[in-house]
Write a structure and sequence with these properties.
This protein has helices spanning about 25-50, 55-60, 65-70, 70-95. By secondary structure, the chain is mostly helical. It has one domain (about 25-100).
Length: about 100
């Protein structure tokens, strides 16, 4: 077995301290945190709101929807959307590690 041919040196990238060398801009970090916060808040709201007394008042907003809103399956489906939002927010929070310096 013969040794591999020597490879030319890799081109030097920007210096780590320079602005163009940053892998993520501060705006992407901020958007990731805001997205995780938004999903977390919406998730908790959708999970809990259908089962509160305020949800009964929501049925007064559109009386023709009252029959659907009083159905427990509809309330469960809305809570299920809340669980999905909570899952997305936890995945995004766990993904925030991509911004950590290595």
């Amino acid at each position: 077995m013969t040794p591999a041919e020597p490879q030319p040196p890799a081109p030097a990238g920007p210096e780590p301290g320079s602005a163009s060398g940053a892998p993520y801009a501060w705006s992407r970090k901020l958007l990731a945190v805001l997205f995780a916060t938004f999903c977390l808040e919406i998730g908790f709201f959708l999970l809990l709101f259908p089962w509160t007394p305020y949800a009964d008042d929501f049925g007064l907003f559109r009386p023709e929807w009252r029959a659907y809103w009083d159905n427990h399956f509809v309330r469960g489906a809305i809570s299920g959307l809340g669980v999905v939002n909570l899952y997305v927010s936890f995945v995004e929070i766990a993904g925030l590690r991509r911004f950590a310096k290595r």
